Each structure stands twice: as structure tokens, then as C-alpha cells.
Amino acid sequence: MGQTLSEKHAQNVQVFIPAALNRPTHTLYSISVVVHPTQQEWTINRRYSQFHQLRQDLLSAIHEGSHCPGCVIFTNHLMEMSFPSKSLFRTNRNVRKRVAVLQEFLRSLVQIVFLGETSECRNCGLRIREVLRAFLLRGAQPVGTSDLCKIQSTLCLHQCYRNKSEALKEPESNQIEFPRAESDRDSHSQSSEGTTEEVSFPSNNMFESSSEKCHDDALPLEQAMREVVIPEGAACTTADIMERLSSMWLAYESLSSDSSRLSMGTQHSFTL
Predict the structure, then answer these.
(1) CB 51 within 8 A of CB 31
(2) What is the total count of domains within the chain?
(3) Tens digit of pLDDT at every position of the chain (272 positions)
(4) Are strands 40-47 and 141-142 parallel, antiparallel or unpaired?
(5) Is residue 75 classed as helix, strand or coil in its secondary structure?
(6) How many secondary structure helices (H) and strands (E) does the chain include?
(7) Dihedral of CA 119/102/202/187: which sign?
(8) How far is 184 from 207, CA to CA, in rounded Å?
């Protein structure tokens, strides 16, 4: 029996959390994104507060009182998704539990927003994709032969893989450009009448002042490596841990001696 459309789509975009950096004052989650049709892979780092803000911004992207079936379905899906509550305890055990929940949260969002087959209203649909795209792109660290310029547009280009009766072409202004501060501050969506509505989301602003890495002072390498939390059951070597450490902690950035270590096809142990 052949694959269904949804099963094929699930293979096109993969989002997973292969590691977290557990510090006394915060936990940083390393997120890997792989888009197979464009052969691009990158990692980003996010804190719990940024996941929480993403969820709030996605809810805000829906027009209040909207009766569009697609908006109602998306809102219901979002409210039903498991999301970890705030916690003062950052033990490795708790971090692993949170990694599992946040990973499933992101995976579900990508499935609905970029790969879903549900009809949506044009305005809210663009706003929702802009919010999630900003979360997945800002601070991107290319892996292997992936290119930053291609990464910036890869999720826009991926719209052609969606199974929709009426394809929506993203306007040029919706492309995310890292060098432009104004693009980072505002999300834009275009209504069916052709007018542009400008909306500012807190999650767009909160990434601007951060290099997306931990800025704490360096520790002895062996001690720092123990700060890297790997999900339960995930296969991982010492070299893998060092590579994750270099991508999350600025003081150990020089450890990244082989940028192709985490390239596509080598991280199957972490794939959802």
C-alpha cells in the first residue's frame, strides 16, 4: 500500500529537539529543522518563555470573533495541544520531560500550519505562518552544506508541497530577511482585497537582542558537557555532545570543528 498524502508530507519537514542546555538560571532548547524538498537543515535555540510567547502569538494571529471554519479548527487544535507548565525545578529529568512535550508541540504545529490540508481564511492563514516561520528561522545556524539565504526562504517555498484546492502565493514582503530590523519587528499579512495589514507580535521582538546562545562564563569542558541534556533513549556520542554544546553555548563555539557532523541523514536517532 502506498503512502497517503499526509504521510508523504510528514517526511518533507522534520522538527525535533535533540538536546537542551540546562543552566542554573535558564534552560536552552536546541531545535533542529530539516526541509527535505529544499535540502536545507539548520538549528535554532529557544527558551521556554519563547515557546510560551509563540503559543500566545499564534492565538493572537486569529481575528477575534472569527467564524471561519479553518480558524476555528486551528484554534481548537492549538488549545488541545499539550504544553508544559512553568516550573521552578530544572532537574535533568524534568528537562527531558519538557523536551518531549515541546517537541510534540512543534511537530504538531508544523504539521497543521505548513503541511495541513485544512482550508483556511487567507488573512489569518498568512499571519499564522508568518509567526511560526519567524520562530523557526530567526537565529538559524546552517548545518553541513545548507545555505543561510536558502534557509530564509525555504519554508515559503515549501508552500508548493501543500495539498490545497487553491494555492496561495506568498507576497514578496512576507519573506523573512535577517539583515532588516523592520522585518524582524513586524509580521505582515495580505487580505483578499490586496491591502496589507501590519501586525506586531512580541515573539518577533524578543529574539532581536539575543544571539540565541548561552552567554554564561565557560566551565571546565567535562563539567560543561554534563550541562547538555540528551532525550531519553537517544543515541549520542561524546563528539555529538560537544557539537551540541558549541551550538548552544557561546564560550564553546570554537568546538565546532566539523560543521557537517549533524548534516542530513546522520540524525536519524533523534527524528520524530
Answers:
(1) no
(2) 1
(3) 444 334 444 458 899 999 999 999 999 999 999 998 788 999 999 999 999 999 999 998 887 766 788 888 888 999 999 999 888 888 999 999 999 999 999 999 998 888 776 556 667 888 888 899 999 999 999 998 999 888 888 876 555 444 443 433 443 433 333 333 333 334 343 433 444 344 455 555 544 444 589 999 999 999 999 999 999 888 889 999 999 999 999 999 988 754 445 544 444 333 33
(4) antiparallel
(5) helix
(6) 10, 7
(7) negative
(8) 9
Contact 42, 151 (CB under 8 A): yes
70 found inside a domain: yes
Question: Distance between terminal CA atoms of the chain?
Answer: 22
Domain presence at residue 266: no
Q: Which domain holds residue 59?
A: 5-255
pTM of the model: 0.75
Alpha helices in the chain (DSSP H): 5-12, 48-60, 69-80, 92-113, 122-137, 148-157, 181-185, 202-205, 221-225, 238-248
Please name which of 46, 18, 59 lies closest in space to residue 270, comparing C-alpha atoms: 18
CATH number of 27's domain: 3.30.1520.10
Q: Residue 116 falls within a domain, yes or no? A: yes
Closest CA to 24 of 184, 224, 165: 224
Question: Whole-angstrom Cα distance, residue 72 to residue 236?
Answer: 41
In a domain, 40, yes or no: yes
- DSSP assignment of 172-184, as one string? GGGS--TT-HHHH
Cα separation of 28 and 19, whole Å? 9
Neighbours of 256 (CB within 10 A): 16
